[in-house]
Structures are given as structure tokens and as C-alpha cells.
Amino acid sequence: MRLFRQRGRDLAVLSAVALATSLLSGTTAVTAAHAAPTLPAIVPQPVSESAVTGSGFTLAAGTQIDVLSTDTAALGVGTYLAGLLKPATGFTLQVVSSTQPAGNALVLDPNGPATLKAEGYTLTSKSGGVTVTAHGAEGLFRGVQTLRQLLPAAVESPTVKPGPWTVVPVQISDSPRYSYRGAMLDVARRFYPVAQVKRFIDESAAYKINTLHLHLTDDQGWRIAIGALPNLTTVGASTQTGFTGGTSWYYTAAEYQDLVAYAKSRFMTVVPEIDGPGHSGAALASVANLNCNNQTTAPYAGDNWGFSLYCLGDPQHVANVSTFLNTVISTVAALTPGPYIHVGGDEAPATTTAQYAAYVSAAASATTAQGKTLIGWHQLSQGTLPANSLLQYWGTDIDRTSVGAPWESENIQQVRSGVAQGAKFIMSPADHAYLDMQYNSSTPYGLHWAGYVSAQKAYGWDPTTVTAKTDGSSSVVPAAQIAGVEAALWTDNAYSPSSSTPDSGSQFPEPSVYADHMSFPRLPAIAEIGWSPQSTHDWTNFSQRLAAQGPRWTAAGIAFYAAPDITWPSTPGTLNGVHTVTTGGQALDDPASSTTNALQMDTWALHGGNNQKWTFTQQPDGSYTLANGASGLCLDVNGGSTSPAATVIQYTCGGGLNQRWKAVALPGGGYTLASAKSGLLLTTASAADGALVTQQTDTNSALQHWTIT
Ligand code: ACM
Predict the structure, then answer these.
(1) CA-proximal residue: ligand 1, atom 3 (nearest)
(2) CB under 8 Å to 455, separation ≥6 — which residues?
(3) Which atom of ligand 1 is closest in space to residue 279's alpha carbon?
């Protein structure tokens, strides 16, 4: 169990830290903290930030990353930083271990005072160099995430950009409000391949998220190999919501360990969730003796919930469940170095109190037997919790309005029981922190049972009042029992149109496309609630800092939603209307004005004919359909492929994701056009007449950069 601390803005401690940091003694004039206009926009807001006069430090090819330690983890942060900076700058910065800081360097000093604790850091940026000081490697890593945001947005680009790479001069002292700051991925309803989980880890780590909760099991799928129970993967992993017949929709032990190691390299703890006694359909389809009739159920690929339940009705079946959980949890625990196992507990169909308690008892003993700390959804408090357990609260403001009333909601009563048992709480209020909730009625994916969650709503709450009365008093969870926050990206309805059950007409974006759209800009809002002092909470200020992240996401290729409650720096004007689309003077072209369905498109010298004219129509997700002026057919990725090199054709317009193209403005002018389904870029083969058009990964090639006029 970690020690949880809660810290507001504590300027006395922080100035002591600053004084204790000898590296600051040579700092040039530091202006007062209220010199706001010159301060960089950082998310999450640091505890204290003040401007430093001067021009700032400019990276060059010869800049060293100077790690004042021989500690492998600290040096690893140096190597990580060099890796972050290389793609956009083109510099291969040398990482050196030294005892004295060099001038004109990026200095990482892990020998800061213990008062910085695990995650605190100070950062000083001035013309002579940049120094991040922490008490160990983890604080350096958090400080490096801030350093990224002091560089131009183009630093996030996967390909070389011109620079200059000047770090804004500033002095920062920072530490987190809560030590648990999570992001959850539901890989059960929709399977995220390893590479896409790693992408999510990187995107989350950039906002100082330190916990990755993997919802590994549900009705629609079982996603982790358990050697002793092979049916869990041969049968239980064969479905996803809207998909059947899979053979590899799970993580092997080696893949899971690779994910855990990758997360660790980003100072992120993995929390594996094995959900039960409800949400257990994939297990019930795989293991006969978990069912009361000892027969497996059929694998399930629908979008329903709340119907599955381990058999807990007699001692033999309780013993079966217990044996099953011991097998599963011991296997998962052995692969998981982090301290936690999440055992679910949500939305179980009606059981007797004793039956539910039997599940909690079995899950808790399987977890504590492995020396792990138990986490469950707040319903788990209906059983007896081991000491030091954590509960994850997912109620809404409807529960809040009932606090203290005679008709207090079940959710709040369960929270009270958890508080009484001494549990600490991870706050994931569904109407603020559930990233699968639609932003508004135009959001193509997701649900709105907890209401629409705009960017402002994602930011508009506080852990200390989310279980309080509406006037903020009488919080059911005392401040000392709040562990932190978690944003939850469920994938129950990660398809479009999400209002209906998935069928052959459903459109499924790549999981990473869905994750980008639903997480950005809301995940950074939750991250800030977990990190920044409550005293900094201010929507106007936050929305401006968040807006400044937009160009970073664009540079990084994050397909974020340009939420309308934020004034983005260069909200792309609509491209609606008729355009030619050219690269190097060669125009996207329907060969010989053909009206043939499924014909591959090409590029040809611009002549302005109708077959080189495209009608752009913006879709609710911000992407465009492109209908050809000669054929009336729509630009389409053949077969909805998500593979590089798939052909781009014209096809009867249907509005599917493979006919939607996301126009991303390039810093130097022009656009890339990314398939809303695959995320891959519209690419022509060459500058020759008749060159064929495909989708390809982003290589920063001129053949992927389009002028739209
Ligand atoms: C949940 O949303 N069922 C935890």
C-alpha cells in the first residue's frame, strides 16, 4: 500500500525546497508569480510558476543531457528525454552521467531534497541551460513532461521540423495533489493491440497520469492468457462488442509483461482488473463450473450488461469461484509488479447479501494471498474489505443530490459502508470522468446515460465535493480517504452509430482513433484535477492552457476532438465546399472521369476538370467526406481496411468512417488527410501522372502533404 498524501498549495514548503536547491542560487532576476502574461501554458498547472528574464535556452545538436547520477533509473529518464526530442529536432542528444552540471545543457539532478517526495520536482530554465531537480527518477520524469511543454508545439512531431528549439525561461516548483492519478482502458469490449495501449500510455504520461487500469475481462471478452485455463483465451477472447471469431484478441503473458514494463518506463503502475461476480460473461462462456448448471454459456458480442453472474448459490459453486479466482489472480499477480489487483464488483445482477459477500471474500483472499492490495468499484463495500483496500466511485451528481436525504442513493450508501471500513477512494464520477460519455449529441461514438460530458464538465468537479451535498458540505468521503482520481475510457459503444446495437452497418474506428477522440481534451482535464492544487481551479484559465495543447496534439498526430467549449488557437475554418486537392501540382483525380464504383483514385497534373474537383462536407466528428465532381462518388478506403498500402477508391457515398477524412493543418501550410477509420494518411505513389493513391503511415513525405484550394 502506498502512503497517500494530500497536498494543497504549500508555499512555505516549496520555497524551502527552492532554497535548498543550490542550483537555483545563480538564477537571474525572478519576477513575481503574478507576472501571468509571460508564463507558459502548462497542463496540469504546476504548484508554482514564475517568469525568468532572458531569452531562454536553445537546444543544439551538441546539447548534452547531463544526469547528475549513476543511477540506472535516472539515466533512463535522460535516455527517454533524448528519445522524445530526437524525432522533431533531428538531434541525437548525448546522455552523460556526471558529478558536476555542465553549462548549456539539459541537467537532470535526482539528488534533490527528500521534501520533494517521489513525484515533486523543480525546474529552472534560463539562457544558460535547463535544470530539473527531483528526489529520484520518478520526479525527474514528471519534470520532463513539463519541460516538453516549454518547447514549441512542433517538438511533438514524429518527423524533423525546423525549430529553433528554445525552452521558455521559467522557474517551476511542483508536486501532485494526489498520488493516484489513473486512466482506464476497457480492452474487454474492444481489444486494444499492444502498440495502441503503448500509445495510450505515452499520451497519458504526458499529463502526469501515473496509473494505467486495464479492464481486462467482461461479458464481451477475456483479454489475458491464464495458462491453467486455456479456454479463457480460446473461447473467452474470441469476441468483442460487434466482433466474433477472433483468435488473438488477448495479451499473452509476454505481451502483458511487455506492457507492464513499458508502463514502468513511463513511471506508470498497471492495475489489472478481473471483473466479477457480474460482467463475467467471457469467463462463464469458458469455464463450465462457474455456471450453476455446470454448462458454459455462448460467447457474447452484444452491447448489453448486467446479465451475467458467477454461480454463488451453493457451497460447491462458491468453492469453484474461489478456485477460479485463486488461479486467475495468482497468475496475473505474478506478472504484475504493481501493488494492486482490481476485482470489479459493479453491476452484478441481484444476489443475496451472503452470495455477494462470498464473492468479495473469495476475491479478497485470492488478492491478499498474493500480497496485493484490493481495488473494487464502490459496490464492493457490500462485502468485507481487507485493510487498506481502495474503492473506485463511479456515481453521478444524481447521487450527490441525495446525500443526507431520507432517500439517499444506494451508491452513496455503499460509499458510506466503504468509508466505515476504512477504504480509500479513487474518484471516477461518471458524469465528469467517464470518457465514453458523448461530448454532445453529435459525438459519433459512446453513450450519454450519465449525461453529455463537455470539456468544461470533465473539468468541473472536485474530489472533495463529489460525494458532498450540493452546497459542498458533509462530504461522505473525508478528504483523508481520497486516494485520487481516474478517467475511465469504456468501449461498450466504441462504434458509430452508437445508439443501436452493433450490426453489419456499424462503423468501428481503430481503437486508437476512438481513444484520441474521446480522451482529448478530457483526459488532461481529469489529470489536472488529480495533480494541481485545488486553489488553481479556474475554467477560464484552464481552457486557455488546454487550448494551447491543441497544436501539440496536432503535431503528435493525436486525432483530438476540437471541443466547442474551448477557443482553439487556430480552430480550422471549415473546408466545406468544392476544392482541388494537390501535391506538388498533381491533383487528386478520378481517372478519366469514370463513374465505376471501387475504382482506385490517382493523381494527375492539375487541369481543373470536374474529375479533379471534390466536394468537402464536414461530419459531426470534424472529419470530411470528399465527393468527386465527375462521378459523385466518395473518396473511400477500400474495404474499410486499417492496413498501410490499402487502396483509396471512389465508392457510393455512405458516410462510413472509411469515407471520412480528417484534415490536419501542417505548420508550414497544407494538410494531411487521415482516414477517420484507420488514422493512416492519404498518399500518392509519386509525382508522375497516373500515380495511384493509397493510405500509408505518416512518413512526412511530400506525397502526403496536400494543398486544398
Ligand atoms: C461501471 O461503470 N460499471 C463501473
Answers:
(1) 346
(2) 439, 521, 522, 525, 543, 546, 563, 565, 566
(3) 3
Same domain, 161 and 184: no
Q: Are 246 and 377 contained in the same domain?
A: yes
Is 572 among the domain residues? no
Cα angle for residues 593, 595, 597 (degrees, 5° grid): 130
Out of 375, 394, 396, 489, mutate this one to test ligand 1's pocket (max ligand atoms within 8 Å of CB): namely 394
Tell me, what amino acid is at 546?
A: L
Could you tell me the three cell numbers for 95? 546522455
Query: Which tens digit of pLDDT belongs to each residue from 131-173?
Result: 999 999 999 999 999 999 999 999 999 999 998 999 999 999 9
pLDDT of residue 90 exceeding 80, the answer is: yes
pLDDT at 26 over 60: no
Give pLDDT tens digits for 273-324: 999 999 999 999 999 999 999 999 999 999 999 999 999 999 999 999 999 9
**pTM: predicted TM-score of the whole model, two decimal places:** 0.86
Same domain, 126 and 225: no
Q: Are 532 and 47 in contact (CB under 8 A)?
A: yes
Q: In ligand 1, which atom is closest to the CA atom of 490?
A: 2
Q: Is 455 in the same domain as 521?
A: yes
Tell me what pLDDT residue 620 has.
66
Q: How far is the CA of 54 from the centre of ligand 1 (A)?
A: 51
Residues 295 and 244 in one domain: yes
Q: 421: domain range?
A: 178-556
* Of 180, 126, 265, 206, nearest in space to 6 by CA: 180
Asked if residue 24 belongs to a domain, the reply is no
The pLDDT of residue 18 is 34
Neighbours of 384 (CB within 10 A): 12
* Gap from CA of 639 to ligand 1 centroid (Å): 34
* 527 shares a domain with 400: yes
pLDDT recorded at residue 173: 98
- Please check whether residue 29 lies inside any domain of the structure: no
Same domain, 227 and 251: yes
Co-location of 191 and 147 in the same domain:
no
CATH of the domain at 87: 3.30.379.10
**In the chain, how many domains are there?**
3
- Percentage of residues in the chain having pLDDT higher than 70: 94
